[in-house]
Amino acid sequence: MPATIILDDPTGCSYVQSLTAPMDDNRLSKEFYTRSYEQNDDLGINDMKVENYGELEALEEGEEEEDEERESAET
């Protein structure tokens, strides 16, 4: 019985094994697409801070070291 399965996985965590590997299977097709804003929002990607991430981390570490030095100087 013929069937069509459409697997829409915005995270890309799904896997479909070809039974004809390593040869191509003309019954399987793969389509890459850009996630929509709504899909990114559902995954929490829209709220992620990724620009200057490493710089912010280094600044926070520097501030923590300064705080520790001040505390040890006060005691």
TrEMBL record:
Residues 57-75 have a biased composition (Acidic residues). Residues 53-75 are annotated as: Disordered. This is ZPR1 jelly-roll domain-containing protein. One of its GO terms (cellular component) is nucleus. It comes from the Eukaryota. Pfam families: jr-ZPR1 (PF22794). Residues 2-45 form the ZPR1 jelly-roll domain. Coiled coil: none annotated.
